[in-house]
Specification:
Length: about 425
């Protein structure tokens, strides 16, 4: 009798986000549908003096030991999320075969705070004032490396950088590592922490940020007619992905199936999306093809939904054309802001939770469904809906497009 082909299953989630430092707080915050953007003293005087900071836990205490002194904030966020995901999966790293465990952690920028601080030190105090730890603190791959060290994961350790699609790229890469048999387990996700005056100013200067300084909580408004830019956020999300056979053999709980992943590039502009959404569509269609689904079988879309005029118009048009049966649409960035490289992983976690709970969180600050496009945005209140199949979109500067197709565990292998 032929052995059933392994699928990629999600067995653990770990999060540190602006709406809470654990899964329960994150889900409650999303379902409340209220933005957590607020003024930040360190950003005072800037065109956008507000953001969505990932508070709620003492990262140094959570990391523990002496290792934290060599880590930038984004690494600490990633490590805490990874430990929580592994614990949620019921895994005990000292007892696993580390050679078969990979780490793929997407980061867009890295330790920019440490870099800026040491530039000042160099200017004021000369070479001797620069920290000998600057290089490992600022490099984007530090998160993947530190997670591998902490957990004893000796398989492939990768750090994809596809801007705001990085977290989703990490999950797609992990899916490939499992599908090819290179790994039994992959710890995958994304992390970012760049809430510094320099980075905020950089995004503001290019016109990407909302300027609603009088009311930060109303600034992030995906798909609203009066949207004017995104709100920066920070955080991390890590998912434990396993081959289904491996998870079953150890008695692990499968929370969802990552049924397909697709990627494609616009080759259009460094920062603006292709208005026709051709690259995004190819990514979504590749994910559907990998999952073996027709477009009309999709029940729910977790949209990239940045609250920028160009992205939301491109994405809403894509959804309307590709999914005319009007699956429900949500956009977590209305609540948590744009967490850049972490966004694709955080929103993948949100998609898994929607499958599990049968609830679609509302889009913050969207008072009524948009009239410009025929899409079914969830507004004001969470919607109770049986969701069997869902797609999560992630798009990044450089024209990177990634789509992830998740399936409810009860419906997989039908």
């Amino acid at each position: 009798m032929a052995r059933e082909k392994d699928t990629t299953v999600v067995t653990g989630l770990g999060l540190v986000t602006p709406v809470g430092a654990d899964e329960d707080a994150f889900w409650a915050g999303l379902c409340a549908g209220r933005s957590v953007a607020r003024h930040c003293t360190e950003l005072a005087g800037l065109p956008a003096d507000f953001a969505c900071r990932a508070d709620g836990s003492d990262l140094d205490e959570a990391v523990g030991g002496r290792a934290g002194w060599r880590m930038a904030r984004f690494v600490k966020l990633a490590l805490v999320a990874a430990r929580r995901a592994v614990a949620d999966a019921g895994l005990r790293p000292p007892g696993w075969d580390g050679d078969r465990v990979g780490v793929v952690l997407g980061v867009g920028v890295g330790g920019v705070t440490a870099l800026v601080d040491n530039v000042r030190r160099l200017d004021s105090g000369g070479p001797q004032a620069v920290s000998p730890l600057l290089a490992p603190m600022m490099m984007p791959n530090a998160a993947a490396g530190e997670i591998a060290i902490d957990l004893g994961a000796r398989g492939p350790s990768l750090a994809p950088a596809t801007a705001c699609a990085s977290g989703a790229t990490a999950l797609a890469t992990a899916h490939d590592l499992l599908a090819t048999g290179r790994c039994d387990i992959v710890i995958a996700g994304g992390a970012e922490s760049v809430l510094t005056p320099l980075v905020v100013t950089a995004f503001a200067q290019m016109g990407a940020l909302s300027t609603r300084t009088a009311d930060p909580s109303a600034a992030s408004r995906p798909f609203a007619a009066d949207r004017d830019g995104f709100v920066l956020g920070e955080g991390a999300a890590v998912l434990v992905l396993e081959r289904s056979g491996h998870a079953a053999a150890r008695g692990g709980r499968a929370r969802a199936v990552l049924a397909g992943a697709g990627a494609a590039t616009d080759a259009h502009h460094p920062t603006a999306p292709d208005p026709g959404g051709h690259g995004a569509r190819r990514a979504v269609e590749a994910a559907l093809d990998g999952a073996g689904w027709a477009a009309h079988e999709v029940d729910h879309i977790n949209a990239h939904g940045t609250s920028t005029p160009l992205n939301d118009a491109m994405e809403a048009g894509l959804i309307a054309r590709l999914f005319p049966h009007r699956p429900s649409v949500t956009a977590p960035k209305g609540v948590i802001g744009h967490t850049l490289a972490a966004g694709g992983a955080i929103e993948a976690a949100a998609t898994v939770l929607t499958l599990e709970h049968g609830v679609v969180p509302p889009i913050a600050n969207l008072e009524a469904p948009p009239t410009e496009w025929d899409i079914d945005c969830v507004t004001k209140q969470p919607r109770h809906q049986r969701v069997e199949r869902a797609v999560s979109h992630s798009f990044g500067f450089g024209g990177h497009n990634v789509a992830l197709a998740f399936e409810h565990i009860r419906h997989a292998g039908r």
